[in-house]
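Incident log, structure service

09:12 report received: a user says their structure output differs between two submissions of the same chain.
09:20 pulled the input from the user's history:
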Amino acid sequence: MKTKSLAIKKDRSLSSRTLAILFFLPFFVLFCLFTLAPVVQSALYSVTNFDLLNRKDFVGFNNYKQLFLNDEIFLLSLKNTLVFACIAGPISYIMSFIMAWVLNDLKGRTAFALAFYAPSLTSGAAMSVIWLYFFSSDSYGLINNALMRLGLIDSPILWNQDVDLILPVCIFIQVWMGMGTGFLVFMAGLQNVNQELYEAGAIDGIKGRFAELYYITLPQMKPQLLFGAINTISGSFGVFDIITSFAGFPTPNYAGHTMVAHIYDYAFQRYEMGYASAVTVILFLITFLFGRLVSFLLSSKDE
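09:34 re-ran on a clean worker, output below:
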């Protein structure tokens, strides 16, 4: 009887494992086709001189040498991308969590969630056009008009032409747009925290919302915090359409030129796919390293 029961349990475990593999297989196939394969192909192209017309010539690491030694525009795009991601990403991430935490206990949180999430459903190009009405460089722009009426300025500020203002304004737009998805994720995480933990914490002497946040809420929300951080990183490093729609392509004096813009320039304007692939690989490595750092910081110690 024991042997028969063990055999039945073994058959059930095998069937469960097979079912899990079948459910996982479609995602794995799509991941390999549309994520892994393009990454590998870009890495292979990055060591060639490929322009879509002529035969691919192997050049080794010459493209990477050109990027770091002779391409000043790439170095500027690398700087702009890091500045953009390191400012817009954390601000958007922190503000999303704070707003979700503050609004979590309100009765009308569904309406607030919809209001915060709606901008993320719209493309960056469309939202940049709307923000252009606010930051228009003439006297009819809402911000310029308000400042001139208040007597704070005498002439319109060139928001999308001044090299010192393009990146800060685009960071502001990205922060506003990037709060939607993070807000929704954090709101869902806050709703799933076991309320009994707060009661147990009160018995143990944890009092006040900030103490509950530090000792109970944040440890219970690590999966949502990690998911939100990864989304924020990928969105911040992949910015392109917002800046292009707001300040044009290329931006004045390359003030808002990012790595994705550099990829677009060489891939679809000059058709130098090998060189563009080298930029893509560098951007992938930077994003991957930031993602691994965030995963290390937010992962549970017992995992």
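09:41 both user submissions now match this output. Likely a transient worker issue. Closing.
09:42 reviewer note: Residues 148 and 155 are 7 Å apart (CA to CA). The chain is about 75% helix and 0% strand.
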